[in-house]
Design goal:
254 residues; alpha/beta; 8-stranded parallel barrel; 10 helices
Amino acid sequence: MNTVKKHFIIVGNWKMNPGTLAEAKTIFTSIARRAKQSKKVTVIIAPPAPFISAISGKGIATAAQDVDREAAGSFTGSVSASELASTGAEYAIVGHSYRRSVGDTDAIVAEKAKRALEAGMQIILCVGEMERDGHAHYLKVIRDQILAVMAVVDKKHSRSIVIAYEPVWAIGKSYDTALKPSDVHEMAIYVRKVAAEILGKTAGLKIPVLYGGSVNFENAQAILRDSSVDGLLIGRQSLVPKEFGNIIEYADSI
Ligand code: PEP
């Protein structure tokens, strides 16, 4: 029997929530209490940018939800990768489906990824199709999203890349919309294979792949146990410390 336990990555994407710093601290404190009990789960919280510095350095890694494609300059309202890194963010999400829906093309996502990596952060690259078609054209969408980024990043950064497969049609939906473990398994293999096309077999097949899209405690258990993903990217349920904590605890136990 294989007794080697897997090291999972659990990411909480708070999106534009909660409404105040006080609420953010309360939620964070409850999550941190649970996370500190786990021995082998990397927990990453992606709060709204103004809250990053307040919750960084307290035992859980933080992520920016986005970075600007430019390094610095006259870009009112934008926040650069180096600014976000200097507030304590160790990771940056790039290519989230929301950002893609408001204009981030594959080329823009690639520029953002490069900026984040050059600023010393690790990236969580989100990829995923809008819909599934019967001819598997969606696989090309995902391939293009991955290769656009892999083509521009310096190979020395290959160990700083995590890919989150998030089918857009499964994000923010009812929890029975989440992909079944066997489908998650297939997609994780596909994502690693595509990454290997540019990074080479050794580095590409080692890229951690997460699943995201309507994950809760119930479906998280089957996905973590019965697929080959390295973790989860969780939206709504990451604002519910009890549920999110249960997912961390489960990931720690298998
Ligand atoms: C997300 O924000 O990427 C996400 C997966 O959200 P949810 O878990 O709410 O579907």
